[in-house]
Amino acid sequence: MILAPWRTPLARALHRNRSLPHSRYAQLATVDPQGCPHNRSIVFRGFPADTNTLEFITDQRSEKVSQIYQNPWGELCWYFPHTREQFRLAGELQIIDNSSTESPTQTARQHRWQSLSDTSRQQFTWPHPGHPRTGDLTTDVPDPTTPPDSFCLLWLHPQRVDHLELRGTPQNRYCYQQDKNQTWTVQEINP
Amino acid sequence: MILAPWRTPLARALHRNRSLPHSRYAQLATVDPQGCPHNRSIVFRGFPADTNTLEFITDQRSEKVSQIYQNPWGELCWYFPHTREQFRLAGELQIIDNSSTESPTQTARQHRWQSLSDTSRQQFTWPHPGHPRTGDLTTDVPDPTTPPDSFCLLWLHPQRVDHLELRGTPQNRYCYQQDKNQTWTVQEINP
Predict the structure, then answer these.
(1) Which of A99, A146, A154, A177 has the largest CB neighbor count within 10 A?
(2) Which residues of chain A does B133 touch, with a Cβ-Cβ cutoff of 8 Å?
(3) Please, what sign has the CA dihedral across residues A157, A100, A44, A36?
């Protein structure tokens, strides 16, 4: 696997902003079947080995999962406060749910589940997200080895990355684009 | 004008996060004519007097403006790091450009332009955003009284607001919805 050229500036931004826990939060836009955009914060969990793919976790019952099943295109907007940089990563989204039969993805799903804290794992046993709240949320501690059906990985495979550096005048902005042969090119563009 | 019920928790979040300059940055999702989502950070500029409308500024030449002309629906995702809260505000977007003839909106556009710093104003005289960078960006200081054609206001008129409080276990989440009579209701929902 060849490291995509936007990986180095993104790794630098993650490193320089590492003192801020919320620098690992980014906002993911998807589209529903009516053509309306939706947008929410998600937590970056790393790059699966030997890929340029960004990993997140999600509840299968959440609205974004049904949106992605129907339209897998998304754009992630990621702002780094310390260094005043923005990355916009657009590409296909992939849900790894309990029906994913390919064994490396199932293994990745299982490993990610096992790496979570009990508190994070508990959220996947709560009542249906977004439904009216009728009582206490369950606080059962789920099995730490086997993920429940609600637990999914969410993978973003970027095809276009827009990197804006707000610090300094004038600002700098770069557009990374993947062509049909999976080759990345970069161009400096006006901010 | 009746203050929408989500205004109080949003005002509280803005106040409690006021030490962080980037707490006024939020991410706006729009959809292009091909049905793909786009997402970028924008800076909240306040509520125009006697409205529940959120104000931002934008360059008319930016891609989001042409997307909004064709599909005015958007969702803003706003995360507050200190208090660990997220607001998702969905609704219609309105562009106030130089062709807007209604005088209160033109006056608002002029006043906002006059309130900006020279550095902010200069960005509206830079070469076309997103085009390949060919040379130095112009550094002319534009007329501080009359906005150039590129300067637009961007107004978001929310119709649905989702407020998630991540602090504490379990988390709290509220959904505010506007009905056809412009009346707001609120419901507690599962996080």
Answers:
(1) A154
(2) 173, 188-190
(3) positive
Q: Do A35 and B38 touch (CB under 8 A)?
A: no
A13-20 contact pairs (CB < 8 A, 24+): A13/A80, A13/A83, A13/A85, A13/A87, A14/A80, A16/A80, A16/A82, A16/A83, A17/A80, A17/A81, A17/A82, A17/A83, A19/A82, A20/A81, A20/A82, A20/B81
Closest CA to A90 of A138, A128, A49, A54: A54
Residue A159 contacts B where some CB pair is shorter than 8 Å? no
Contact B90 A38 (CB under 8 A): yes
* B133 interface with A at CB cutoff 8 Å: yes
Residues contacting A34, CB < 8 A, separation 6+: none
Domain B7-128+141-189 is in which class? mainly beta
CATH of domain A7-130+137-189: 2.30.110.10
User: A120, B170 in Cβ contact below 8 A?
Assistant: no
Confidence at residue A101, expressed as pLDDT on a 0 to 100 scale? 82
Give me the residue from A37, A169, A175 closest to B30, CB to CB.
Answer: A37
Given a contact cutoff of 8 angstroms between Cβ atoms, the answer to whether B54 and B158 are in contact is yes
Q: CB distance from A71 to chain B under 8 Å?
A: yes
Torsional sign, CA A143, A145, A148, A152: positive
- Digit-coded pLDDT (tens) for B51-70: 999 999 999 999 999 999 99
Give the distance, in angstroms, between the CA of residue B158 and the centroid of all CA atoms in the same chain: 10
Using only the alpha carbons of chain B, give its radius of gyration: 18
Nearest CA in chain B to A23: B81
Q: Check residue A15 and give its pLDDT.
A: 98
With contacts defined as CB-CB under 8 Å, which chain B residues touch A29?
Answer: 27, 29, 37-39, 75
Cβ neighbours of B73 in A, within 8 Å? 35-37
Q: CA nearest A126: which of A60, A69, A63?
A: A60
The interface predicted TM-score (ipTM) is 0.97
Q: How far is the alpha carbon of B103 from chain A, nearest alpha carbon, in Å?
A: 31
Q: Is B39–A86 a contact, with Cβ atoms under 8 angstroms apart?
A: no
Identify the bridge partners of residue A132 per DSSP, sorted by sequence position.
Answer: B189
